[in-house]
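step=encode ok
step=design start
structure_in=
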């Protein structure tokens, strides 16, 4: 964030909020399907507490976690229908409506540090995607996306000492085009499965490995279902997209709208840091539980990324990511590197 923006933001948040003469607080139902202890849930809960306090109770948030109200796969429709006021679905779900939302799956991001992904999603490519999401889904995006974490490879019976060890494994993914493509790229056999079905499928040998994050594996206690090996290649950074329903946004006064966006901007950095720390803790816990973790050397990541880039245009076409967005992504990555 530029210095001038920091000064303006600090002044805005420091200034007292003047409560209007609204008779009743504005109800704000927020749905996530992650557990109370998950870093996304913790971050959203923190944001809502701060929003209620800063608005002097003029906004009355209510958080429904653990999918008690809706699964994440249902929240976009619910936002459009006005059944909830806020959610933060993953980019893999948003991509069903706006394919470019899954831009982090492109080969150019394979094995790259998190700053590269942030440079794209916080820059011009992210702005263009946010505009599409806002128009097509009739939602307001209050600010930068929230990190989930890097996706890696995890297996049951076969040790993963290098990327060559993925060859021949049946590997679970969460869907879309890029994840299965990446498994095939390394000689694996992709298999799509819903997350609730993963533990039993692993235990029964339905698939040999999966693409996931450390925290997802740890929170699901997948070591109980036979997960024994991890291969860390940071193949993609998954993101959550904060969304506010159009009907709710229209009901807010200009000062309340400013309060929402300024609060999100002031806190998203700490939420991203907290998520990174949660992933690090999860990886340490997996090791304590007996998982053998191998980190792919940087030079191998660079070599594989170079090989992947030869197929990026095809991958982008299959993902339905427009050439214009790909061009802006390339410019952002080059500027960072």
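sequence_out=
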């Amino acid at each position: 964030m530029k210095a001038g923006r920091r000064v303006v933001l600090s002044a805005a948040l420091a200034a007292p909020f003047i409560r209007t003469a609204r008779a009743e607080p504005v109800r704000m139902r927020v749905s996530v399907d992650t557990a109370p202890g998950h870093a996304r849930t913790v971050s959203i809960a923190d944001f809502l507490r701060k929003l209620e306090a800063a608005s002097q109770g003029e906004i009355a948030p209510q958080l429904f976690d653990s999918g008690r109200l809706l699964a994440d796969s249902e929240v976009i429709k619910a936002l459009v229908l006005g059944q909830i006021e806020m959610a933060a679905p993953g980019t893999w779900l948003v991509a069903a409506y706006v394919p470019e939302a899954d831009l982090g799956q492109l080969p150019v991001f394979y094995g790259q540090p998190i700053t590269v992904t942030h440079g794209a999603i916080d820059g011009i490519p992210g702005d263009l995607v946010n505009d599409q999401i806002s128009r097509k889904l009739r939602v307001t995006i209050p600010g930068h996306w929230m990190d989930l974490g890097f996706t890696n490879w995890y297996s049951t019976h076969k040790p993963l000492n290098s990327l060559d060890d993925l060859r021949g494994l049946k590997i679970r993914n969460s869907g879309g085009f890029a994840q299965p493509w990446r498994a095939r790229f390394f000689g694996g056999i992709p298999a799509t499965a819903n997350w609730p079905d993963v533990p039993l499928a692993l235990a029964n040998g339905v698939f040999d490995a999966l693409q996931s994050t450390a925290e997802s594996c740890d929170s699901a206690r997948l070591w109980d279902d036979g997960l024994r090996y991890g291969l860390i290649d940071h193949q993609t950074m998954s993101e959550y997209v904060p969304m506010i329903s159009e009907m709710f946004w229209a009901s807010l006064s200009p000062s309340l709208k400013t309060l929402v966006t300024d609060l999100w901007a002031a806190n998203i950095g700490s939420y991203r840091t907290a998520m990174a720390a949660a992933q690090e803790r999860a990886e340490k816990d997996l090791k304590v539980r007996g998982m053998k973790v191998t980190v792919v050397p940087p030079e191998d990541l660079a070599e594989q990324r170079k090989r992947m880039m030869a197929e990026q245009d095809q991958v982008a076409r299959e993902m339905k990511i427009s050439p214009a967005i790909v061009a802006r992504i390339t410019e952002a990555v080059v500027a960072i590197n």
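step=design ok
step=annotate ok -> The longest strand covers residues 229-240.
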